[in-house]
Design a protein that fits this description.
By secondary structure, this protein is of the alpha/beta class. The protein is built from seven helices and six strands; from the N terminus they run E-H-H-H-E-H-E-H-E-E-H-E-H. Strand 3, helix 5 and strand 4 form a beta-alpha-beta unit. The longest helix is centred in the first third of the chain and has 18 residues.
Length: 235
Amino acid sequence: EAIENGFLSHYLYQPLFVNLSDSDFNTYQSYTKQVIVAMNQDPLDEALIKDILTKRSSVVKKSNSKIDKLQEIVRNQSGRKYDFKNSVVYCGHGKDYETEESIIDSVTRVLAMDGHYSVSQFTSRTADRARVLREFEDENYDVLVAIKCFDEGVDVPKLDKIYIMASDALSRQTIQRRGRVLRTCTETGKRIAYIYDFVALPPLGSVEGIGVPNLVVNEMKRAREYARLADNNTD
């Protein structure tokens, strides 16, 4: 109703499908097996189950395939299909298990070096987040690379694009992030917003077996919600 009545902007949603590597998916399957075993214990150890699910979710969030996909679309700018100016990129926390570089530093490096964008990080450790937001609104930064702390209590009406490389399974987070980019802005006359979502799938050729349904169903819950109210939902 808010979109229809002009209180929030319309938006387009585009999933960017990413196949996990065999290594990442093997790890994902291993955690899935552990969950199955834990779910069949009596009594249930809910803390253990939550811990395993968190580790399994982290495999998807930190997948190197997402960094590769980001690099691909940043470098392939013929026709400027993907513009990162005036955008926030949500990424996972922690380190890349192959390079030991933090995920947020990897994402920042790709955007700054391959895309030649001016980039700032926006995390709980950012010294002066209010200043960073002002700099972003004044277009001194093209992109903010953020973790969870951009989800709540941040209002940047000029923002018109978000790229989601990591997401929790919480519907609240999905709603918050959508709301963040749908703010109307009289200053820029924003009419449309864009949501780009890195949707993780099993490796090519993996259509059944342990972990396949879990991964696809979990990812599609989010994709379905974003697509539901998008102007291009029939696509």
